[in-house]
Amino acid sequence: MCFTTAHEKILAEPISSQTDQSDVATFAPRLLHWFDNFGRKDLPWQQNITPYRVWVSEIMLQQTQVTTVIPYFQRFIETFPTVTALAHADQDSVLHQWTGLGYYARARNLHKAAWQIVTDFNGELPLTVDELTALPGIGRSTAGAIVAICKDEFAVILDGNVKRVLSRYFAIDRWPGQTSVTNELWQHAKELTPNKRVAHYTQAIMDLGATLCTRSNPDCPACPFTSDCLAHQSDSIESYPGKKPKKTLPTKTTCMLVITNHDGEIMLEKRPSRGLWGGLWSFPEINLADIDRLLADLPVVPHIKRPMQAFRHTFTHFHLEITPIHVQVTAEEQMRRQDKFCWYSLTHPPSIGLTRPVTRIIESLKETHV
Ligand code: SF4
Question: Which of 8, 58, 124, 363 is catalytic?
Answer without folding.
Answer: 58
